[in-house]
Write a structure and sequence with these properties.
This protein is an all-beta fold. Helices cover about 0% and strands about 50% of the residues. The chain has strands at about 1-5, 10-15, 20-25, 35-40, 40-45, 50-55, 60-65, 70, 70-75, 75-85, 85-90, 95-100, 105-110, 130-135, 140-145, 150-155.
Length: about 160
């Protein structure tokens, strides 16, 4: 089990069964925002337009890509989730997620989730969309936000 710190530039590896700390590692980025696993690699976001691909055994950087769409670099990449279609990322402060090609960094799709924003919750940076997790068994996603009183299970159908 891997865990990032937001600003301390330290990550942790825990035993998945006992939760005993196995080791610590340096993030090699300014901040830790999101982390997912993909084909024996860890993929990290740091709030920029970059995604960093690491060897999980030594936490050594293997490669880095810049994420872009038709308008240019996509910054504030936050929570990441790898799926067979690519890497989904929420963009911090926005009500959408993007689907990124992990080889090129090109945004393949943008999914508007603004309809999920809970009623009676202020639309400020304290209450933004901020969580995405993929359920492979059901091919659905769990999405939520900071301080949201709800979590949604949704299916994303790509055209």
């Amino acid at each position: 089990l891997f865990m990032l710190t937001y600003v301390s530039q330290v990550g942790f590896v825990f035993d998945v069964n006992s939760f005993d700390l196995i080791r610590k590692f340096n993030l090699q980025t300014r901040e830790g925002w999101g982390l997912t696993s993909m084909n024996n690699q860890l993929v990290l976001s740091d709030g920029t337009a970059s995604l960093y691909f690491y060897d999980p055994a030594y936490f050594s950087l293997m490669r880095q890509i810049e994420v872009c769409d038709h308008q240019g670099r996509v910054t504030n990449l936050n929570e990441l989730e790898y799926t067979p279609n690519g890497i989904f990322a929420n963009v911090y402060g926005e009500n959408f997620v993007v689907l990124i090609d992990p080889e090129t960094g090109i945004v393949k799709s943008k999914v508007d989730l603004s309809g999920l924003f809970p009623p009676n919750v202020p639309e400020t940076y304290d209450y933004v969309l901020n969580g995405i997790a993929y359920n492979q068994a059901s091919n659905t996603f769990y999405v939520t936000g900071k301080q949201w009183p709800v979590m949604y299970e949704i299916q994303i159908i790509l055209e």
